[in-house]
Design brief:
Elements: H1 2-11, H2 26-159, H3 162-183
Keywords: ATP synthesis, CF(0), Coiled coil, Hydrogen ion transport, Ion transport, Membrane, Plastid, Transmembrane, Transmembrane helix, Transport
Organism: Wrightia natalensis
Membrane topology: Single-pass membrane protein
C-alpha cells in the first residue's frame, strides 16, 4: 500500500522534459495504465454501455408487455373455457335428467307392452282351451252318435227278418224310381 501512495507522490517530482525512460515499478505503472484504460473506457464506452443497457431494458420491457398480453389472453381463454365448462355441465345435467326421464318412460312403455303381450297370451290360451274343449265335446258327441247308430243298426238288424228286409228294399227302390221320373 505504501508503494501505491508513493507512486502518486512521485508524480509531482518528475522532471519536466528532460528524461525519457521506462518505469520499472510494476505497481505504479499498472495503476496508471488501469486508470488510463478505465478513463478511456468510461469516456468512449459510456455511450455504448448506455445503448446496450437501453436495448436490454427495452427487450425486458417488451418481454414484460408480451407476457402481460399473453397473460391477459390466457385469462380470457380461461374464462371462456370456464364458461364453456359451465355450459357443458348444465347440458350434461339436462341430458342426465332427460336421460333418467327417458329411461323411466321407456321402462313404463316396456311394462305396458309386456302386460299387453301377457294379456294377449292369456286370451290366446283361453281361446285355445275353449277350442280344445269344443273339439273334445264334438268328438264325444260323434262317438256317442256312432255308438247310438251302431246300437240302432244292431237293433234293426236283429228285428228285421228277410221278408221285412226285402219289402224295405223294394220300397226304397220305388222311391228312387219315382224320384227319377220327377226329374225327367
Amino acid at each position: 500500500m505504501k508503494n501505491v501512495t508513493d507512486s502518486f507522490l512521485s508524480l509531482g517530482h518528475w522532471p519536466s522534459a528532460g528524461s525519457f525512460g521506462f518505469n520499472t515499478d510494476i505497481l505504479s505503472t499498472n495503476l496508471i495504465n488501469l486508470s488510463v484504460v478505465l478513463g478511456v473506457l468510461i469516456f468512449f464506452g459510456k455511450g455504448v454501455l448506455s445503448d446496450l443497457l437501453d436495448n436490454r431494458r427495452q427487450r425486458i420491457l417488451n418481454t414484460i408487455r408480451n407476457s402481460e398480453e399473453l397473460r391477459g389472453g390466457a385469462i380470457e381463454q380461461l374464462e371462456k373455457a370456464r364458461a364453456r365448462l359451465r355450459k357443458v355441465e348444465m347440458e350434461a345435467d339436462q341430458f342426465r335428467v332427460n336421460g333418467y326421464s327417458e329411461i323411466e318412460r321407456e321402462k313404463l312403455n316396456l311394462i305396458n307392452s309386456t302386460s299387453k303381450t301377457l294379456e294377449q297370451l292369456e286370451n290366446y290360451k283361453n281361446e285355445t282351451i275353449q277350442f280344445e274343449q269344443q273339439r273334445a265335446i264334438n268328438q264325444v258327441r260323434q262317438r256317442v252318435f256312432q255308438q247310438a247308430l251302431r246300437g240302432a243298426l244292431g237293433t234293426l238288424n236283429s228285428c228285421l227278418n228277410n221278408e221285412l228286409h226285402l219289402r224295405t228294399i223294394s220300397a226304397n227302390i220305388g222311391i228312387l224310381g219315382s224320384m227319377k221320373e220327377i226329374t225327367d
